[in-house]
Design goal:
The chain is mainly alpha-helical. The chain is 56% helix and 10% strand. The protein is globular and about 55 Å long.
């Protein structure tokens, strides 16, 4: 029996763009509590993006890239009578954003031979153009959910 739901904390919007989404990106990039370093990385990446795509505002590009990377479905393991099924479920909007941001930062960290600023900028541009690792991960997640649609009746 669960006790109660964890309360969502208010997120303070970031200083430069006054956006909660950018603040979440900064928090996702942050390691070992070094927020100012994470801010430098994110704002640096936004500057690089602004130079490469002069016709689009960096914040708008980030929001569009996030929309392209957000998964709508995922699979969860359910145990039914000794067998484990991958059951497709729809994802809540908060989790969609969290997954997309997590994938973006993970794949940016995985890019070797460039600074984190440049890697994050490249990942944002790829997601904006509907290409790259982040969007591929989303597509794979959707394909997995589609393939296991037969087990959707185990959702509860």
């Amino acid at each position: 029996m669960r006790r109660r739901k964890a309360e969502k904390r208010e997120l303070i919007p970031d200083v430069k763009y006054n956006s909660e989404l950018v603040a979440r990106l900064i928090n996702t990039v942050m390691e070992r509590g070094k927020k100012s370093t994470a801010q430098g990385i994110v704002y640096g990446a936004f500057d690089i993006v602004a130079k490469k795509k002069k016709d689009v505002e960096p914040l708008e590009l980030f929001i569009q890239a996030l929309d392209n990377a957000k998964p709508r479905l995922e699979v969860k393991s359910r145990r039914v009578g000794g067998a484990t099924y991958q059951v497709p479920i729809e994802i809540h909007s908060d989790r969609q954003i969290a997954l997309a941001l997590g994938w973006m930062t993970t794949f940016a960290k995985g890019r070797n031979g460039m600074s984190m600023k440049r890697a994050l900028a490249a990942e944002l541009l790829d997601a904006f153009e509907n290409t790259g690792s982040t969007v591929k991960k989303k597509d794979d997640t959707h394909k997995m959910a589609q393939a296991n649609k037969a087990f959707a009746h185990f959702r509860w």
